[in-house]
Amino acid sequence: MDLYEAIYKRRDIRKFRPDPVPEDALGRILEAAHHAGSVGFMQPWNFILVRDLAVRGRVKASFEEHNRAAAELYEGGRRELYESLKLEGILESPLNICVTCDRRRGGTVLGRASILDTDLFSTCCAVQNLWLAARAEGVGVGWVSILDNAALTAALALPEGVVPLAYLCVGYPVEFPESPMLESVGWRGRLPLGDLVFRDRFGQR
Amino acid sequence: MDLYEAIYKRRDIRKFRPDPVPEDALGRILEAAHHAGSVGFMQPWNFILVRDLAVRGRVKASFEEHNRAAAELYEGGRRELYESLKLEGILESPLNICVTCDRRRGGTVLGRASILDTDLFSTCCAVQNLWLAARAEGVGVGWVSILDNAALTAALALPEGVVPLAYLCVGYPVEFPESPMLESVGWRGRLPLGDLVFRDRFGQR
Prior knowledge:
The structure is a homodimer. Chain A is α+β, with helices and mostly antiparallel strands. In chain A, about 40% of the residues lie in helices and about 15% in strands. Chain A is globular.
């Protein structure tokens, strides 16, 4: 698939068909993620392929707890709309992938002495590669952020120094919608790019 | 360009030709960045196009200070190798882009209540889109991380609540090398993907 097509047709997917992602497609998706750049060539990521329904049940329980709390941040029609939204596909998708960042990998990492979080940023770049490669394979990805890092750490037995960066639901989608879901339900609109670009200093057009 | 080709041929570029990036290509690159997914459709990013050589000079001074300190983390041959590496192209590239994250944009952002840093992660996804789109346009990007966020904040007049996420050198490269520079000079090798993939729990093959 053309790069721009993958970028513009990528969506955050929450409704999945149950059929599994073939191993060869999954291999290409993970290899693409692994070929993101990383600070000092640190490659701080791991990919935990979560199929075990007991593990996923614990993650889903964390989602439900945090989602109830999040709903209370809104009132009236906004709250009704929030509660109507499907925000994850943890149990229905055939596969979850937790992308983690090992913050201690590789000792003194070149380029990381001044801004320590560049390892997290590198891992995000791997996630975006994964998301785009999945799109090119016809596979949907949904990033679940309504979660508790402590619960993920326990459910996935993460050792000290390894943090969960992205918890992804992965599988063939019911559809790739034309527009982002939050845009099509009227939650929030796309900002005009021109408003976001400045010259030489923040705020200068 | 094919997505996988862009992913595998993307490089962190430090040696640039001086010719400017045409406005239409730059527009496509920024639009691709803007079409990354973001938590709650927050779109927390701005793109500061830095051409002013006085601003870039201040950024370069910050790089030089931090690069001297970073060199001292290594000893012997490793230090000699470090000092021989070209790690930025701030003044030679025709354009720098600082991608920022406005941490207060959009009020109570859906999906961000539990993990506050998801806005930073979204901005990283935009950076990766930018990097890949640039590659497809034949344009090189180098991420400079040996910098001081306070110096960037001052040089770019960032208001409170806006953080510099990525400082990028942008332009046509002298070449897109076959391999990552840190690999080809023997600084660090690529990890085997198989070692990075686990099943259901961290450490489980």
